[in-house]
């Protein structure tokens, strides 16, 4: 689980520009999913630090830290492609960034937002990166996608009840993917490499 307590150590050099600011509400209580007894918690997807701060006045530092945590997690667990063309076929034109790490170089989609819960809890908040596709070739165009292949619905939806598993730590991803990894993995709700086997992560 990506869970962090309040901190003032902020590093926003890698923040993506251009996120829109829209009014949202933040849910912080745990609930029980009606009918099946699965424990869930309320979460909100924010598209930027400003988006989070506008809805949580006085919590700018927490919003910044949670954003950076999600950005770091996106770097670690996000889908990785060998070419810009394949990445943009999955996520849309100008939606992918060249990245170099110790494990190699590849193209990754930009983090489109971050899911956040328990922002004001003394036990610490939960955060995870969220992705979306703008590609006309993707059947998951403009839908929120988690790092484990979960489909959270229309990207205009920001407030939701999610399983606590949504915030569990995902495996690091170092392998690049081929065409079809995004859509087929979401359909299987497994890995982002297109396999039907059950796993959590982008196929790393």
Task: Describe the protein's architecture and organization.
The chain is an alpha+beta fold and 204 residues long. The chain has one domain (42-189). The chain contains four helices and ten strands; from the N terminus they run βββαααβββββββα. Strands 1, 2, 3, 6, 7 and 10 form a six-stranded antiparallel β-sheet that branches. It has a two-stranded antiparallel sheet with strand order 4-5. Helix 1 (49-55) runs antiparallel to helix 2. The longest helix is centred in the middle third of the chain and has 18 residues, at 60-77. It starts with a strand and ends in a 16-residue tail after the last helix. The model is unreliable at 6-35 and 185-204 (pLDDT under 50).
Principal-axes geometry comes out as globular
How many domains? The number is: 1
Stretches where pLDDT is under 50 for at least 5 consecutive residues are 6-35, 185-204
How many alpha or pi helices? 4
Task: Note the beta-strand portion.
Answer: 15-25%
Gyration radius over CA:
16 Å
From the N-terminal CA to the C-terminal CA, the straight-line distance is 18 Å
Instruction: Profile the largest sheet.
Output: 6 strands, antiparallel
Instruction: Please tell me the overall pLDDT.
Output: 75
H and E string: EEEHHHEEEEEEEH
Give the helix/strand class. alpha+beta
Count of beta strands? 10
Residues in helix, %? 10-25%
InterPro entries: Biofilm_formation_YgiB
Protein name: DUF1190 family protein
Biased composition (Low complexity): 189-204
Region (Disordered): 166-204
């Amino acid at each position: 689980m990506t869970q962090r307590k309040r901190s003032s150590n902020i590093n926003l050099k890698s923040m993506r520009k251009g996120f829109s600011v829209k009014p949202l509400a933040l849910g912080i209580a745990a609930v029980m999913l009606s009918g099946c007894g699965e424990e869930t918690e309320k979460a909100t997807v924010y598209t930027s630090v400003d988006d989070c701060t506008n809805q949580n006045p006085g919590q700018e530092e927490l919003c910044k830290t949670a954003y950076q945590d999600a950005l770091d997690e996106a770097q670690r667990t996000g889908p990785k492609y060998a070419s810009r063309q394949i990445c943009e076929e999955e996520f849309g034109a100008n939606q992918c960034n060249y990245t170099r790490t110790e494990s190699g170089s590849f193209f990754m989609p930009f983090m489109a937002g971050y899911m956040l819960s328990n922002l004001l809890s003394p036990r610490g908040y939960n955060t995870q990166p969220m992705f979306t596709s703008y590609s006309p070739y993707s059947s998951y165009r403009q839908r929120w996608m988690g790092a484990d292949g979960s489909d959270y619905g229309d990207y205009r939806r920001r407030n939701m009840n999610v399983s606590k598993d949504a915030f569990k730590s995902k495996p690091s991803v170092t392998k690049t993917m081929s065409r079809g990894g995004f859509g087929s993995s979401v359909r299987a709700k497994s890995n982002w490499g297109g396999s039907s086997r059950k796993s959590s992560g982008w196929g790393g």
